[in-house]
Amino acid sequence: MCIGVGGFSATECAPVNASDADAVLVTGGSRNATCRLQRRGVGSYTFKQLINHNNPSLGTFDQPYWASWEFQIYKPGGPIILMTPGESNADGFTGYLTNRTVNGQIAQQEKGAAIVLEHRFFGLSNPYPDLNVASFKYHTIQQAIDDLEYLANNVVLPFPGGDKISPADAPWVLIGGSYSGALTAFTLNNKPDVFWAGYASSAVVESIVDFWQYFEPERLTMPKNCSNDIQAVIAHWDQVIASGNTTAFDELKTSFGMGGVVHQDDVVGTLRNPLWNWQELSPTSGGSVFFDFCDALEVNSAGKSAPASGWGVEHALSAWANYSSSTLPGREWRGDCLGTYNTSQSFWTDTSIDNANRSWLWIVCNQMGFLQESAPSGHPTLVSRLIQPIYDERQCQQMFPAAFSSPPVPDVEKTNNAYGGFYLKADRLFTATGLRDPWRFATVSADGIDVQSAPEQPIVESDAFHCSDLITKNGLADPTVLNVQTQGLKYIGEWLSTWEPPVVSVEVNVDLNFKHRAYPIPRR
């Protein structure tokens, strides 16, 4: 995808691959032993998943999953730890089978097995050979929830006792972050008898059309000088646009390396690109693209940093123009790459599978929204006032013309009513949030939302970023993340200790007026 084409940042957490070298063994031991431990018992498999859970006669498709069961020795009846990465090919997420993540820590703590399941219509998990609108008929949040239930009730894992791991035989723990964190919460709400416990990190449980708040944690917690100068530059752009002086606008966009970009909204929409890099930050990320951008604005040629107020619009405008010109794609095709109006481009027409952007936009445009736009008038903004929901809703129509004859408004009310939104209820659901997470305002820790932590639905917030608590080493770098991880492990452990095999009741007909009396019988 070209930088700037499409006005959406996906919610997904960072991938972790089991082959990465930076393993961490929380319980002690040598580094080499840790790596050996984490590579034993890991395999790639496929599961026959129903195409349509409302009509099983349509058949099945192959849904890839990865499994591991040898953190210690899997204890029969031990918990099954399930995660779907959500809106991505899952092949890069095998690290979530290891104790370098909370998933693996829980499996290790409880002598359980870990599974990573690819989400339908992402990666190679496709019922049909393309991603056209007709294929997407079964690409919904509810079908994804039903996938998790069907897998739990029917999968046979390739290890001793792997044929007796259904929710009737072993407790299942569902884990996810970001969209898959929301999917975790939605599933525990929607399928309360399937998963015994859940861990939802940065869970975007409230679907929102105009999600201008995406940039608020960034504005409030980034270095003040950088925040102030970004706002000053954006205000200058908006003043030039409002003046109607097309010559001044053309000169300005040319100085930013966007002379070939035709439409004003595409030009100022591209200015969000460095802001989206905030989502990639973590307590262990160190230097990053985002801070390179801030340094370009705030460190002058003498090596001196700006005060908290920033350098002001004149310096910041010139510095950002130089940064933009040097970092945007090749000059000869910037007009096509940064524009969103040419629907003949492959970005809009490519319906081949394993196109995560297209699959995610289907959920965005229909069910969840999360359009990342300018703040409301009168509120400080890092994004041009020209960028409003219609800018991205138009792109929904362009991506899926067979579905939308006009720019659609995502039906977020239906989604929030179905699963509860901010006020979702579920038993034994641990929720982790981050103060600096750009998605915080779609989580239960959003400012102005009165959702209280409770013993059966605890909420613990760190000072960190998006899904930071899922990665073990982030807890070693940030004590607030370690607290979240510790609390999560404690709650999950306590809840698992209370699990017992469910009982079923059968109707027994006997004489002496005892007809219809029910006797509980333990399931085998």
TrEMBL record:
Domain of life where this protein originates: Eukaryota
Keywords from the named record: Glycoprotein, Hydrolase, Protease, Signal
Pfam families for the chain: Peptidase_S28
A GO biological-process term: proteolysis
Coiled-coil blocks: none
GO molecular function, one term: dipeptidyl-peptidase activity
Family label: Belongs to the peptidase S28 family.
Protein's recorded name: Peptidase S28
Native species: Multifurca ochricompacta
